[in-house]
Amino acid sequence: MSVSIDVVHGNMATSKAQCTAIVVAQSCFEECMKRAEALCPDISTIAQQRGFIGKAGSTLIVPVVKETVQNVLLVGLGEARKGERSVELWRRAIGTIIRTVKQLKAGTVAIELTPIQVGQATSAQLLEQGIIAAMLAGYEFDTFITTHDATIVHALAVEFYTTERLIDTLQQARDRAEIIGHAVNEARQLKNLPPNVLNPKYVAAYAKEIAHKNNLKFTVFGREEMLKMGMGGIVGVGQGSVNEPQLVILEHAAPVDNAPTVAFVGKGITFDSGGLSLKPAKSMEDMKHDMSGAATVLQAIVALAQLKCPINVISVLPLAENMPSGTAMRPGDIIKFYNGKTAEVLNTDAEGRLILADALSYAVKQYAPDAIIDVATLTGACAAALGSFFSGMLSEHDTLAAQVALAGEKSGDPVWRLPLTDDYKVAMKSHVADLCNIGKAHYAAGATTAAVFLQHFVGDTPWVHLDIAGTAYDVPDISYYDRPTSTGTPTRLLIQLAMNYKV
Ligand code: BES
Ligand code: ZN
Ligand code: ZN
Fold it and tell me: What is the pTM of this model?
C-alpha cells in the first residue's frame, strides 16, 4: 500500500477523512478524552462502557454520522514515561492506527499530532517519528501476489493534524521523515525479494542505478578482480554458486571540506545454504534475509545523500551466494584475505565473517575512515541471546559504541551491548592458519567469537559490529512491522548516527 503524508494546521474536527484518530495516553487519559469529545461528544461514555483506558496497543472505534459516516479511532499509548522508550510507544500507536485503518478499508485518515509530552520529544520529533512509523506500517510485501482481494485499499492518504503553526521545523521534520521512511521500506523490499530473483549481480545493478540517481560514486568488482586483489574470503564463499560474487562500494562526499568519514559495511549473502556444511531445511527457510546488512547500508547511504549528510559516508557491500557444489569451498580449506591474513575454514556456514573480513580490510585500507560500522545477520547465537527487540552491539571503542547506542534509542533501532574482551580472543586461534573461522566449542559465546574474528580486519580504526540475526525479520508485536517479513533494521540507526556523528 502506498502512503502519502500531509501535515495540516487546524482543527481535526473539520477533517473530511474517513477516519480520525487520536492517541490516548493512560497517564493523561482525561485530557486526551476531552479532545476526543470534540470529534464525538459521547466518546467518554462509550470508552467507559468498553473499558478503554488508553493501554498500549488497545483501540476503540466509534462510527459517527456527519456528512458521511466517519470512524473516530482512539488508540492507546500506554504510560508516557520519560525517555526514548515512550517515543517507541508513540511509533507503535501510529502503527496500530494504520493497521486499523487498513482493516476498516478507509483511504484517508487524519491523525492528531499529540500535544501531550511523550518522553523528551519535541513536537517536530514526534511528527518525524510518527510519519516514519506510518510509512513503515503501510509497507507490505505483495510483489508476487497475483490474487488480490478486490476490496483492498492500495493508497492511503495520511494527514497529521496540529494546532501549532506550521513552522519550518515541522516542515523539515516531514521532509526528513519521508526520506528515512522510504529508505527503510526500500531496504525491506530488497530483503524480502526471493533468492531466485535477488542475487549478487541483481544487487550490484540495483545499487548502480540508485547511486546514479542520488549522485553517489559507484564502484563494483567482479570475481576476477577480487581474485587479483587477494580477496580470498568473498571469492571463496562465492565459488560454490553459479552466481558470481560482487563487491559494491558507494561513496557520499560531504558538502564541506575536512569532514570526517564513516564507513558502513553490510553482509550481503543473497542466500545462505550453509555451503558444504549444509544447514538443516528448517534453518534454511529464512536465509534469503542473509543480505540484510548489505541492503541496510545501501539504503542508509542513499538517504544520507538525499539528506545532504554533513560527513563523508562510504558503504561497502560484499555480495555472494553460499552454495554447496563440486566447486564449493571445503571444510579444511585455508584462505587468504585482502589484508594478508589467513584463516582455516572449518565450517562453511560461518561464511559471513569471511566476506566481511575482505570488505572491512578494503574499507580500512582505501578510506582510512574515522569510524567503521558493520552490520550482519551473523550468528544464531546473537538471536538466541537477545531475541527480536535489540540488535547485538560489539565493540572495544566506548565513545563510538555510546554514539551508536544513542542513535539506536533515538531512531527506534535499539541495540544491546555484548562483551568483546581479551578473554575470548584465544577462541579463534588455529593451529594451521592465523585464524579459524569457528570458535573452539568450550568458549561458547558465538556472537562474541564472531566479532573477535572480524576485529582482525579493522586494525586500530574505531569499530562497532552490529549483529542483526534476531532483528532483521520475523519480529513479533511491533505494529509498524509486518511479521514475518523484513524490518529494515538498522537503517534508521545508521542514518541517525551519520547525521549526528562526532569524531
Ligand atoms: N546467516 C547465519 C546466521 C543466522 C542464523 C542469521 C539465524 C539469522 C538467523 C550465519 O551465516 C551462520 O550460519 N552462522 C553460524 C555460525 C556457526 C557455524 C559458527 C551459526 O550461527 O550457527
Ligand atoms: Zn552461514
Ligand atoms: Zn550467513
Answer: 0.97
